[in-house]
Structures are given as C-alpha cells and as structure tokens.
Amino acid sequence: MGLGERLRALRKNRGLTLTQLARRSRVSKAYLSQLENEQFSNPSSEVVIKLCSTLGVSIDEILGLKSMPVTIASQTAVPLHLRALAREERLDDEDVAMLSRISYKGRQPTSIDGWRNLLQAIRQSTNTE
Question: What is the pTM of this model?
Fold first, then answer.
C-alpha cells in the first residue's frame, strides 16, 4: 500500500472528507487529492507533520514503516508533538486522550514545549505534580 492509499484510508477511517482534511491540516485540497491519487509521492516533511498531527498518527504509520498497537490514544486524533511528549513523559492513554481534546479558540499547541506547558498548568491547577 502506497502513501496515497494509506492517506485516503486514514482520512476515511476518521470520517473526514478531503475538504475537511485540507481545512484542518492547512494543506491544499488539490495537493491532498494528488497525494491520494499517487500523482505525488514525496511530500515535504512539513506536509507530513501537518497530516500526522491532523490525523493523529505517527510519521511511521503514515509512511507505512511499522504498524502501531491500537490504543485509546491512537484511536483519537492525537497531534504529533503531543505523541512525542507522551513518549517522553510516559503519559497514559487517558492523559493523552484528555490533552488531545483541549483547544483554545480552535487552536492547540504546535510544539512539544507547548504541550508540556499545558500539561504542567493542568498539573499545577489540580495539585497533581
């Protein structure tokens, strides 16, 4: 299975249209269509990261390098940088799922440090550090 097939399957598994994925990932609909139809097969790392973050998958998964175990965290849309923080902090699936649902004015942190700051603020405000 090529990148385009995997991308289409991941998008459809999440119930997203091409337009919705384009809007959420900030990657053009035309380019996504070309990727899905295997007209382009070597997207930039920036595009791959945007798609991984939007679809809640790892780079390995979208590129077909390995299969991931099915967990609560991998079933929800977990941004790439949050996944990285979860590995570093050894967060459980419940914490990762909770964090992945947080946004402010429709935006989420865009870096590992941003997710770390959010996690620390939650821990401090709930006295769970």
Answer: 0.51
